[in-house]
Amino acid sequence: MRDDTMTDSLKAKAQAAFKDLARDPGVPKPDPILVVDNVVRRFGGLTAVDVNHVEIQRGSITALIGPNGAGKTTFFNQLTGFDTADSGTWRFNERAMNGVPAHKVARYGMVRTFQLTKALSRLTVLENMRLGAQKQRGESFWRALVPGFWRGQEEEITERAEELLVRFKLDAKRDDFAGSLSGGQRKLLEMARALMVQPELVMLDEPMAGVNPALTQSLLGHVKDLREQGMTVLFVEHDMDMVRDISDWVIVMAQGAVIAEGPPSTIMSDERVIDAYLGAHHDAPLSEGELEAQLHEAEAELEAEIEEETQK
Amino acid sequence: MDWLTILTTTVHAAIGWETVVYGLAAIGVNIHFGYTGLLNFGQSAFMAVAGYGMAVTVVFLNLPFWIGILVGLAAAAVLALLMGIPTLKLRADYLAIVTIAAAEIIRLIFRSVYFKDIFGGSDGRRGFNGDFYAMNPYPAGHYGIGPFGFDERTMWFLTVGWAVVLLSCVVVYLLMKSPWGRVLKAIREDEDAVRALGKNVFSYKLQSLTLGGIIGCFGGFLYGLYNGAVQPDVFGTEMTFFAYTIVILGGAARVFGPVVGAMIFWVLFVFVGNTLAELVANGYIPFMTTIQVGPIRYALVGLGFILLLVLRPQGIFGDKREIAIDAR
């Protein structure tokens, strides 16, 4: 089983990189593909994102988690050029990316998917896939008019698309409209389509949202596959089982800021993370007197209520 | 009842000048709306600047006909940039509002008293099509079979007109089969997804707006050449809405949809109008006068379209599967 050992070694390599890292927010990584500094995004008085420093390790699967409204998706939008940050810089492969429009971000090798899946409904599955290919000669107006210019390239693209469709088990659907696929199949299609771009960094915004459990395993497998093919994955997710299962490193956001980082095995027992999810002092012990007083209070309230009911 | 007149006018309408002019407008709208999902409600503006560009160049500046055509084309291209650059970054509904407003502004400039020397006010411009008919290779006479047929001027006009229509269809066919057309259709479905795949959505929208505007502007040239005049009020919102009706009738995002749509539109329009006029004139509909025929014709044709869209929402050429899919 040569494949398995290969997989193991890549996984081990990815995880070894994190071995001796501190658990602090913004901890430097040995080989970062993406380095973010001081990214701020305000909506009126609300500071949605305020990230001081964060690094994403190359060749790893990094999870970005946090309670609802933590700014994860907004942060994603900043990084991929779908929203403009109020300030801050971020470098992808040493290239400054702030102010770069979304389509150029994708061309540089940083490709995202969306929380609400964006299948192009009235295009066939195969056309969806072909669209992802870059540097298509037939996408320029004048050359599009002469099929001879682009037909050869189109065949190469189709071949690559079909290989990916087989891998994602969508090959039987190739000529169906993408709009006729199920929710899970659309997620698969979106991921496969993103791979047509041949990205270095794949950014998945809640890849498991709305996917039925039967497809979850296959989706997880595909995400792990990305690392095995040398890509870096950064994903936003709520499902902690999934985070534990596939990620090498977890970054936790709360109220717009990165509050903790760490390996998936221990991150959920980190105090800062528990505080963020459940609120500080949620488990602070009450003294016995307090407890009794609370009980009495509740009792009195109930009694008053009952009395009111009987008087009616 | 003069059934022969009704029959000949109806057959003529199927391939007549209105079908050519509105067919071209609709081919342009089909590129905007059918393929790219751009709600351009200012198609009449493209036709107006083309028609006026040609007319003013020939009549006011005394330049040759071909220069007039070039001026018209350039005007349409400039208009596409002017309308597109500020609005195409916004959402679809903004484009609809801006284009309909731009079209009205352009119409009102053409009919304004201030520019009467140049554009001729509400009378418009005439007397610029001499060069076009001087090129007519058809000798004088009647061309056709029996009662169906056209004189040599109309023949020349229809030859050129249908050549332009077919050429436009070939261009649309080639483009929409290509990766370029694929990007356009993808933008119609979801432009953020297209952006995320590394395509410059703004540039494609601008190309689409320009191409559809240029094809529409040929409709403007041909309108002026057939009627020998351009008046501002011809290029009102009605023209744009007729073009949209034609696109939906034929089936959006189909190459020949607008052409067949235009044929059906004008056949219905002429047939209903003439039949009604004959019926009223011969006393079969006693409660109507001939003056009422015009408005009633609009109402009946409208009713026909409603029925067609209820019974066949995808249009003549559309694919029922596409309608079944929720667009988003």
Automatic annotation (TrEMBL), chain A:
Protein's UniProt keywords contain Repressor: no
GO cellular component, one term: plasma membrane
Ranges for domain ABC transporter: 34-280
Cited Pfam families: ABC_tran, BCA_ABC_TP_C
Name listed for the protein in its UniProt record: Branched-chain amino acid transport system ATP-binding protein
Keywords: ATP-binding, Nucleotide-binding, Transport
Protein source organism: Nonomuraea jiangxiensis
Gene3D superfamilies the record matches: P-loop containing nucleotide triphosphate hydrolases (3.40.50.300)
Keyword match Nucleotidyltransferase: no
Cross-referenced PANTHER family: CONSERVED COMPONENT OF ABC TRANSPORTER FOR NATURAL AMINO ACIDS (PTHR45772:SF9), CONSERVED COMPONENT OF ABC TRANSPORTER FOR NATURAL AMINO ACIDS-RELATED (PTHR45772)
A GO term, aspect molecular function: ATP hydrolysis activity
Classification via CDD domains: ABC_Mj1267_LivG_branched (cd03219)
InterPro entries found in the cross-reference section: AAA+_ATPase (IPR003593), ABC_AA/LPS_Transport (IPR051120), ABC_transporter-like_ATP-bd (IPR003439), ABC_transporter-like_CS (IPR017871), BCA_ABC_TP_C (IPR032823), P-loop_NTPase (IPR027417)
Top-level taxonomic group: Bacteria
UniProtKB/TrEMBL annotation, chain B:
Pfam families attached to this UniProt entry: BPD_transp_2
Gene Ontology molecular-function annotations: branched-chain amino acid transmembrane transporter activity
Membrane topology type: Multi-pass membrane protein
Places the protein is found: Cell membrane
UniProt keyword list: Cell membrane, Membrane, Transmembrane, Transmembrane helix
CDD domains in alphabetical order: TM_PBP1_LivM_like (cd06581)
InterPro entries in alphabetical order: ABC_transp_permease, LivM-like
Transmembrane segments: 20-38, 45-61, 67-85, 92-110, 155-176, 209-229, 241-257, 264-285, 291-311
GO CC terms of this entry: plasma membrane
PANTHER family, A to Z: BRANCHED-CHAIN AMINO ACID TRANSPORT PERMEASE PROTEIN LIVM-RELATED, HIGH-AFFINITY BRANCHED-CHAIN AMINO ACID TRANSPORT SYSTEM PERMEASE
Stated name of the protein: Branched-chain amino acid transport system permease protein
Organism annotation: Nonomuraea jiangxiensis
